[in-house]
Amino acid sequence: MSKQSLRGPSVKKIPEGDDRERLTCPDCGFIDYQNPRIVVGAVCTWEDKFLMCRRAIEPSIGKWTFPAGFMELNESVAQGAAREAFEEAGVRVEIQDILGMYEVPQVGHVMIMHRAAMRSPEFEAGPESLEVRFFTWDEMPWDDLAFPSVKWTLERYKDVMGQTDVACVSQVAEFKSYS
Amino acid sequence: MSKQSLRGPSVKKIPEGDDRERLTCPDCGFIDYQNPRIVVGAVCTWEDKFLMCRRAIEPSIGKWTFPAGFMELNESVAQGAAREAFEEAGVRVEIQDILGMYEVPQVGHVMIMHRAAMRSPEFEAGPESLEVRFFTWDEMPWDDLAFPSVKWTLERYKDVMGQTDVACVSQVAEFKSYS
Prior knowledge:
- The first copy, chain A, has 179 residues and is mainly beta.
- Chain A has helices at residues 77-89, 148-159; strands at 11-13, 22-24, 31-32, 37-46, 49-55, 64-65, 68-70, 93-104, 109-118, 129-136, 170-172.
- The two termini of chain A are 35 Å apart.
- Chains A and B meet through helix 1 and strand 8 of A and helix 1 and strand 8 of B.
Protein backbone atom coordinates (compact mmCIF):
# COMPACT_ATOMS: atom_id res chain seq x y z
CA MET A 1 0.00 0.00 0.00
CA SER A 2 1.64 3.28 -1.01
CA LYS A 3 1.67 6.33 1.25
CA GLN A 4 -0.57 8.11 -1.26
CA SER A 5 -3.35 5.57 -0.82
CA LEU A 6 -3.56 5.99 2.97
CA ARG A 7 -6.51 8.07 4.05
CA GLY A 8 -5.98 8.96 7.74
CA PRO A 9 -9.02 9.26 10.05
CA SER A 10 -11.72 9.57 7.39
CA VAL A 11 -14.45 7.01 8.11
CA LYS A 12 -17.30 7.73 10.56
CA LYS A 13 -17.81 4.79 12.91
CA ILE A 14 -19.08 4.21 16.46
CA PRO A 15 -16.13 2.73 18.38
CA GLU A 16 -16.77 -0.20 20.73
CA GLY A 17 -18.09 1.04 24.07
CA ASP A 18 -18.89 4.49 22.67
CA ASP A 19 -22.28 5.90 21.71
CA ARG A 20 -21.49 8.30 18.89
CA GLU A 21 -19.70 8.35 15.56
CA ARG A 22 -16.00 9.25 15.49
CA LEU A 23 -13.63 9.64 12.56
CA THR A 24 -11.51 6.51 12.33
CA CYS A 25 -8.62 5.54 10.08
CA PRO A 26 -9.66 2.64 7.82
CA ASP A 27 -6.01 1.64 7.47
CA CYS A 28 -4.62 1.56 11.03
CA GLY A 29 -7.78 1.86 13.18
CA PHE A 30 -6.76 5.15 14.88
CA ILE A 31 -9.78 6.97 16.34
CA ASP A 32 -9.75 10.76 16.10
CA TYR A 33 -11.79 11.84 19.13
CA GLN A 34 -12.78 15.42 18.45
CA ASN A 35 -13.85 17.47 21.45
CA PRO A 36 -14.55 21.17 21.81
CA ARG A 37 -11.47 23.33 21.96
CA ILE A 38 -10.74 26.11 24.41
CA VAL A 39 -9.81 29.57 23.18
CA VAL A 40 -8.12 31.73 25.82
CA GLY A 41 -8.09 35.50 25.45
CA ALA A 42 -7.44 38.66 27.42
CA VAL A 43 -8.58 42.25 27.20
CA CYS A 44 -5.19 43.86 27.88
CA THR A 45 -5.18 47.45 29.10
CA TRP A 46 -2.74 50.22 29.98
CA GLU A 47 -4.36 53.20 31.72
CA ASP A 48 -7.50 53.89 29.63
CA LYS A 49 -6.15 52.20 26.50
CA PHE A 50 -6.99 48.79 25.03
CA LEU A 51 -4.34 46.75 23.24
CA MET A 52 -5.68 45.45 19.95
CA CYS A 53 -4.11 43.29 17.21
CA ARG A 54 -4.92 43.34 13.51
CA ARG A 55 -5.03 39.70 12.39
CA ALA A 56 -2.41 38.51 9.87
CA ILE A 57 -4.17 35.16 9.41
CA GLU A 58 -7.55 33.83 8.38
CA PRO A 59 -10.30 33.84 9.46
CA SER A 60 -10.98 37.58 9.59
CA ILE A 61 -7.57 38.61 8.29
CA GLY A 62 -7.09 42.37 8.59
CA LYS A 63 -9.68 42.69 11.38
CA TRP A 64 -9.09 43.68 15.01
CA THR A 65 -9.10 41.57 18.15
CA PHE A 66 -7.54 41.50 21.58
CA PRO A 67 -4.95 38.68 21.99
CA ALA A 68 -6.57 35.23 21.96
CA GLY A 69 -5.88 31.75 20.67
CA PHE A 70 -6.14 28.02 21.30
CA MET A 71 -5.13 26.80 24.72
CA GLU A 72 -2.28 24.29 24.72
CA LEU A 73 -1.52 21.30 26.95
CA ASN A 74 0.43 21.86 30.17
CA GLU A 75 -0.81 25.35 30.86
CA SER A 76 -3.68 26.85 32.84
CA VAL A 77 -6.28 29.00 31.11
CA ALA A 78 -4.69 32.10 32.68
CA GLN A 79 -1.22 31.04 31.56
CA GLY A 80 -2.57 30.40 28.06
CA ALA A 81 -4.15 33.85 27.87
CA ALA A 82 -0.88 35.45 29.01
CA ARG A 83 1.07 33.38 26.44
CA GLU A 84 -1.20 34.53 23.61
CA ALA A 85 -0.70 38.18 24.67
CA PHE A 86 3.05 37.65 24.45
CA GLU A 87 2.96 35.76 21.15
CA GLU A 88 0.58 38.09 19.34
CA ALA A 89 1.50 41.45 20.82
CA GLY A 90 4.86 41.02 22.60
CA VAL A 91 3.44 42.11 25.96
CA ARG A 92 3.85 40.76 29.46
CA VAL A 93 0.55 40.93 31.30
CA GLU A 94 -0.89 40.12 34.67
CA ILE A 95 -4.09 38.16 34.23
CA GLN A 96 -6.62 39.55 36.71
CA ASP A 97 -9.83 37.57 36.40
CA ILE A 98 -12.33 35.97 34.07
CA LEU A 99 -14.84 38.24 32.31
CA GLY A 100 -16.93 35.37 31.02
CA MET A 101 -17.20 32.63 28.46
CA TYR A 102 -18.33 32.90 24.86
CA GLU A 103 -19.34 29.64 23.23
CA VAL A 104 -19.83 28.66 19.60
CA PRO A 105 -21.09 25.05 19.81
CA GLN A 106 -21.35 24.60 16.05
CA VAL A 107 -17.60 24.97 15.66
CA GLY A 108 -16.80 23.50 19.08
CA HIS A 109 -15.20 26.59 20.56
CA VAL A 110 -15.40 27.59 24.22
CA MET A 111 -13.70 30.94 24.71
CA ILE A 112 -12.58 31.92 28.19
CA MET A 113 -12.02 35.66 28.29
CA HIS A 114 -9.93 37.46 30.91
CA ARG A 115 -9.07 40.95 32.10
CA ALA A 116 -5.35 41.64 32.07
CA ALA A 117 -3.13 44.54 33.11
CA MET A 118 -0.07 45.28 30.99
CA ARG A 119 3.17 45.50 32.99
CA SER A 120 4.49 48.27 30.71
CA PRO A 121 3.09 50.16 27.69
CA GLU A 122 5.56 48.54 25.26
CA PHE A 123 4.33 46.09 22.62
CA GLU A 124 5.39 44.57 19.31
CA ALA A 125 3.37 42.73 16.66
CA GLY A 126 3.97 38.97 16.62
CA PRO A 127 3.87 36.80 13.45
CA GLU A 128 0.08 36.41 13.60
CA SER A 129 -0.52 40.18 13.82
CA LEU A 130 -0.25 42.69 10.96
CA GLU A 131 -0.23 45.52 13.44
CA VAL A 132 -0.73 46.14 17.15
CA ARG A 133 -1.91 49.41 18.66
CA PHE A 134 -3.75 51.09 21.50
CA PHE A 135 -7.33 52.29 21.19
CA THR A 136 -9.29 54.20 23.77
CA TRP A 137 -12.91 53.07 24.16
CA ASP A 138 -14.09 55.91 21.92
CA GLU A 139 -11.57 55.09 19.20
CA MET A 140 -12.43 51.35 19.13
CA PRO A 141 -12.86 50.09 15.52
CA TRP A 142 -16.30 48.58 16.16
CA ASP A 143 -17.00 48.01 12.48
CA ASP A 144 -13.73 46.18 11.95
CA LEU A 145 -13.70 43.74 14.87
CA ALA A 146 -12.73 40.19 13.89
CA PHE A 147 -15.53 38.24 15.61
CA PRO A 148 -18.76 38.77 17.59
CA SER A 149 -16.89 37.33 20.61
CA VAL A 150 -14.53 40.34 20.53
CA LYS A 151 -17.41 42.81 20.66
CA TRP A 152 -19.24 40.82 23.36
CA THR A 153 -16.13 40.65 25.55
CA LEU A 154 -15.29 44.35 25.21
CA GLU A 155 -18.87 45.25 26.15
CA ARG A 156 -18.69 42.86 29.07
CA TYR A 157 -15.44 44.56 30.13
CA LYS A 158 -17.20 47.92 30.09
CA ASP A 159 -20.25 46.57 31.96
CA VAL A 160 -18.24 45.26 34.91
CA MET A 161 -15.60 48.00 35.03
CA GLY A 162 -14.61 48.75 38.60
CA GLN A 163 -16.20 45.54 39.89
CA THR A 164 -14.34 42.70 41.53
CA ASP A 165 -15.79 39.17 41.89
CA VAL A 166 -17.26 39.34 38.39
CA ALA A 167 -20.00 36.73 37.86
CA CYS A 168 -19.22 33.91 35.48
CA VAL A 169 -21.62 34.45 32.61
CA SER A 170 -21.66 32.32 29.50
CA GLN A 171 -22.84 33.61 26.16
CA VAL A 172 -23.82 30.97 23.61
CA ALA A 173 -23.53 32.33 20.09
CA GLU A 174 -25.51 31.73 17.00
CA PHE A 175 -23.23 30.27 14.37
CA LYS A 176 -22.01 32.32 11.46
CA SER A 177 -19.21 31.26 9.16
CA TYR A 178 -16.25 33.62 8.74
CA SER A 179 -14.35 31.74 6.08
CA MET B 1 2.18 -2.59 3.72
CA SER B 2 -0.11 -4.63 5.95
CA LYS B 3 -2.58 -3.06 8.36
CA GLN B 4 -0.55 -4.47 11.24
CA SER B 5 2.53 -2.49 10.26
CA LEU B 6 0.73 0.87 10.29
CA ARG B 7 1.45 2.89 13.38
CA GLY B 8 -1.09 5.76 13.50
CA PRO B 9 -0.04 9.16 14.91
CA SER B 10 3.08 8.06 16.78
CA VAL B 11 5.98 10.30 15.73
CA LYS B 12 6.62 13.66 17.41
CA LYS B 13 7.29 16.35 14.81
CA ILE B 14 6.84 20.13 14.51
CA PRO B 15 4.40 20.65 11.60
CA GLU B 16 5.15 23.39 9.06
CA GLY B 17 3.99 26.77 10.39
CA ASP B 18 3.65 25.44 13.94
CA ASP B 19 5.98 25.99 16.88
CA ARG B 20 5.59 22.82 18.92
CA GLU B 21 5.79 19.08 18.52
CA ARG B 22 2.62 17.18 17.56
CA LEU B 23 2.05 13.46 17.12
CA THR B 24 2.01 12.70 13.41
CA CYS B 25 1.36 9.52 11.46
CA PRO B 26 4.56 8.42 9.67
CA ASP B 27 2.47 6.53 7.12
CA CYS B 28 -0.21 9.00 5.99
CA GLY B 29 0.99 12.32 7.50
CA PHE B 30 -2.10 12.89 9.68
CA ILE B 31 -1.38 15.34 12.53
CA ASP B 32 -3.07 14.60 15.86
CA TYR B 33 -3.45 18.06 17.43
CA GLN B 34 -4.05 17.45 21.11
CA ASN B 35 -5.59 20.28 23.05
CA PRO B 36 -6.96 20.45 26.57
CA ARG B 37 -10.33 18.84 27.01
CA ILE B 38 -13.33 20.26 28.81
CA VAL B 39 -15.05 18.29 31.54
CA VAL B 40 -18.56 19.52 32.34
CA GLY B 41 -20.17 18.68 35.65
CA ALA B 42 -23.07 19.67 37.88
CA VAL B 43 -23.78 19.53 41.59
CA CYS B 44 -27.39 18.33 41.32
CA THR B 45 -29.63 18.90 44.31
CA TRP B 46 -33.17 18.16 45.48
CA GLU B 47 -34.15 20.02 48.64
CA ASP B 48 -31.14 19.57 50.97
CA LYS B 49 -29.88 16.44 49.22
CA PHE B 50 -26.98 16.02 46.81
CA LEU B 51 -27.17 13.48 43.99
CA MET B 52 -24.00 11.40 43.86
CA CYS B 53 -22.88 8.58 41.55
CA ARG B 54 -20.54 5.72 42.40
CA ARG B 55 -18.23 5.29 39.42
CA ALA B 56 -18.45 2.03 37.44
CA ILE B 57 -15.37 2.91 35.38
CA GLU B 58 -11.73 3.76 35.93
CA PRO B 59 -10.19 5.98 37.10
CA SER B 60 -11.48 5.90 40.67
CA ILE B 61 -13.89 3.04 40.12
CA GLY B 62 -16.15 2.58 43.15
CA LYS B 63 -15.67 6.17 44.33
CA TRP B 64 -18.29 8.93 44.50
CA THR B 65 -18.77 11.95 42.29
CA PHE B 66 -21.54 14.22 41.10
CA PRO B 67 -22.37 13.76 37.38
CA ALA B 68 -19.54 14.96 35.11
CA GLY B 69 -17.84 13.97 31.87
CA PHE B 70 -16.19 15.15 28.68
CA MET B 71 -17.98 17.84 26.74
CA GLU B 72 -18.96 16.85 23.20
CA LEU B 73 -19.18 18.84 19.96
CA ASN B 74 -22.43 20.68 19.14
CA GLU B 75 -23.45 21.38 22.72
CA SER B 76 -22.93 24.25 25.14
CA VAL B 77 -21.16 23.66 28.46
CA ALA B 78 -24.54 23.88 30.24
CA GLN B 79 -26.13 21.40 27.81
CA GLY B 80 -23.16 19.07 28.29
CA ALA B 81 -23.49 19.18 32.08
CA ALA B 82 -27.23 18.42 31.80
CA ARG B 83 -26.51 15.56 29.37
CA GLU B 84 -24.02 13.98 31.77
CA ALA B 85 -26.57 14.18 34.62
CA PHE B 86 -29.05 12.33 32.42
CA GLU B 87 -26.53 9.72 31.19
CA GLU B 88 -24.98 8.93 34.56
CA ALA B 89 -27.94 9.35 36.89
CA GLY B 90 -31.08 9.40 34.73
CA VAL B 91 -32.10 12.85 35.95
CA ARG B 92 -33.44 15.91 34.17
CA VAL B 93 -31.91 19.03 35.66
CA GLU B 94 -32.07 22.75 35.24
CA ILE B 95 -28.53 24.13 35.07
CA GLN B 96 -28.46 27.28 37.19
CA ASP B 97 -25.00 28.78 37.01
CA ILE B 98 -21.27 28.13 37.05
CA LEU B 99 -19.63 27.47 40.42
CA GLY B 100 -16.12 27.69 39.05
CA MET B 101 -13.44 25.93 37.07
CA TYR B 102 -11.02 23.29 38.27
CA GLU B 103 -7.98 22.78 36.08
CA VAL B 104 -5.44 19.97 35.88
CA PRO B 105 -2.92 21.24 33.30
CA GLN B 106 -0.73 18.13 33.45
CA VAL B 107 -3.52 15.99 32.06
CA GLY B 108 -5.05 18.79 29.99
CA HIS B 109 -8.40 18.93 31.78
CA VAL B 110 -10.43 22.08 32.32
CA MET B 111 -13.49 21.26 34.40
CA ILE B 112 -16.43 23.64 34.31
CA MET B 113 -18.64 22.97 37.32
CA HIS B 114 -22.27 24.04 37.61
CA ARG B 115 -25.10 24.23 40.10
CA ALA B 116 -28.20 22.37 38.97
CA ALA B 117 -31.69 21.84 40.34
CA MET B 118 -33.34 18.46 39.78
CA ARG B 119 -36.81 18.66 38.23
CA SER B 120 -38.00 15.68 40.28
CA PRO B 121 -36.44 13.43 42.96
CA GLU B 122 -36.34 10.39 40.64
CA PHE B 123 -33.05 9.00 39.40
CA GLU B 124 -31.57 5.81 37.96
CA ALA B 125 -27.95 4.68 37.62
CA GLY B 126 -26.65 4.85 34.04
CA PRO B 127 -24.06 2.44 32.56
CA GLU B 128 -21.11 4.40 33.99
CA SER B 129 -22.51 4.36 37.54
CA LEU B 130 -22.53 1.38 39.95
CA GLU B 131 -25.05 3.16 42.13
CA VAL B 132 -26.71 6.56 42.47
CA ARG B 133 -28.07 7.98 45.72
CA PHE B 134 -28.80 11.09 47.71
CA PHE B 135 -26.55 12.34 50.48
CA THR B 136 -27.18 15.27 52.78
CA TRP B 137 -24.13 17.45 53.44
CA ASP B 138 -23.50 15.65 56.74
CA GLU B 139 -23.71 12.21 55.15
CA MET B 140 -21.32 13.04 52.30
CA PRO B 141 -18.70 10.27 51.83
CA TRP B 142 -15.74 12.64 52.05
CA ASP B 143 -13.20 9.83 52.31
CA ASP B 144 -14.54 8.10 49.22
CA LEU B 145 -14.81 10.94 46.73
CA ALA B 146 -13.43 10.12 43.28
CA PHE B 147 -11.24 13.19 42.70
CA PRO B 148 -10.01 16.35 44.45
CA SER B 149 -12.15 18.30 41.96
CA VAL B 150 -15.28 16.73 43.48
CA LYS B 151 -14.33 17.87 47.00
CA TRP B 152 -13.31 21.34 45.78
CA THR B 153 -16.58 21.82 43.93
CA LEU B 154 -18.78 20.64 46.81
CA GLU B 155 -16.97 23.01 49.17
CA ARG B 156 -17.37 25.78 46.65
CA TYR B 157 -21.09 24.99 46.49
CA LYS B 158 -21.32 25.32 50.27
CA ASP B 159 -19.29 28.57 50.30
CA VAL B 160 -21.58 30.37 47.86
CA MET B 161 -24.89 28.86 49.00
CA GLY B 162 -27.67 31.43 48.78
CA GLN B 163 -25.58 33.73 46.56
CA THR B 164 -26.41 34.68 43.02
CA ASP B 165 -23.87 36.15 40.57
CA VAL B 166 -21.20 33.77 41.80
CA ALA B 167 -17.68 34.93 40.87
CA CYS B 168 -15.83 32.85 38.31
CA VAL B 169 -12.94 31.40 40.26
CA SER B 170 -10.45 28.99 38.78
CA GLN B 171 -8.58 26.45 40.86
CA VAL B 172 -5.42 25.03 39.29
CA ALA B 173 -4.60 21.63 40.76
CA GLU B 174 -1.39 19.92 41.54
CA PHE B 175 -1.19 16.76 39.51
CA LYS B 176 -1.67 13.35 41.07
CA SER B 177 -2.18 10.16 39.09
CA TYR B 178 -5.31 8.11 39.80
CA SER B 179 -4.60 5.14 37.59
